Amino acid sequence: MRKRNYDFCKNSKWFVICIxxxxxxxxxxxxxxxxxxxxxxxxxxxxxxSYTGGTVDLKNxxxxxxxxxxxxxxxxxxxxxxxxxxxxxxxxxxxxxxxxDEPAAADEDEVKEGEGEEPVGEVLTTGAEDTEGxxxxxxxxxxxxxxxxxxxxPEDGEEAAAEDGDGEEAAATKSxxxxxxVNIEEEAALIEAIENAYPxxxxxxxxxNSVSASMGKETLIKSLxxxxxxVGLMLIYIAIRFRRIGDWRAGFCAVVSLLVSLSFVFxxxxxxxxxxxxxxxxxxxxxxxxxxxxxxxxxxxxxENKAKLGRGRVDYAKLVNDSMNETLTRTxxxxxxxxxxIGTVAVMSIVFNIESIISFAFPMLVGIIIGTLSTLFVxxxxxxxxxx
Length: 388
Prior knowledge:
This protein is α+β, with helices and mostly antiparallel strands. The chain has three domains: 8-36 and 213-387, Multidrug efflux transporter AcrB transmembrane domain (Multidrug efflux transporter AcrB transmembrane fold), CATH 1.20.1640.10; 44-98 and 182-211, Alpha-Beta Plaits; 130-179, no CATH class. Helices cover 67% and strands 9% of the residues. The protein contains 13 helices and four strands. It has helices at 8-33, 39-42, 58-69, 105-116, 132-143, 154-179, 184-197, 213-241, 248-272, 278-309, 316-326, 328-351, 355-387, and strands spanning 44-52, 73-79, 85-92, 202-211. A four-stranded antiparallel β-sheet has the order 2-3-1-4. Helix 8 (213-241) packs antiparallel against helix 9 and helix 11 runs antiparallel to helix 13.
């Protein structure tokens, strides 16, 4: 059997050039299309509708929802426990935090303060021509905490009360629009627009709820902290485990290779136009464990081969190339086997248009492939440069 002799260290520059090109493309796409963040992290509303009698186009419904609500919308299709087809419309928040459907504590305090102070509203007087009896009547009524109009000006009083009522109603409407991601009128307009677009399909409201942004941000921050902690622990472990081949340098190169894989996962989400959701965090954490495995296998072989060379002068480029060529079959077979499994899931999710699985399987496939390539063309060659 012919021994492989690929020069990974010499050809690593081409991989680095490809990495730079992908980073430029990612930055450009981020500026053009922006970086979407799922409403579970930003706050918003989930509107669920079951339907029967036909099929729907998710992209068309997404377009209808965006034009009707005037906000970013994503639409997913799934089935409920009874096997009924459903669509879930995720609507981005207006920009503020979505709160629970409960009265604010400040409003309750204002009501309590109002009970202990003078009557709400002002006593309406009827002018200088009012009789003394009328004044007494107004004063007595005010002391009872009621606002009453007397004399010949009931119409003005009624008009003032009507204006106050309109003002309160407008304030309530504005408050509702500011607090909730989708109000009743918008939801009614949305389902009407969808039904008009699909007259042969019967839609039924399957529930809707608001999503708090504060909980989502907390989850996102904790997830990213978990990723950073995992990377830090890997750096420490590899530095200790492979201290005989370069102490911290081995751990540093492995982490750089790992960050390349994670950055490509992020780039995949940006280029696909997918929102950063819980799938993004799940893929990152999975790649953390998978991509580092190939690097550790190569480092093990480098350590074994270096021990065979003794204490003499070491050609680090040859040492790394030989080690990677010796483990190349295992590396490729592992990558191919995993890629076939994940790729099958990705293809089936594309065929059946299951967005929630597409946004997991395809970035995972990219991360696995790039993780292997970065091990071969980043961690090894970078370690050689640091040794020199």
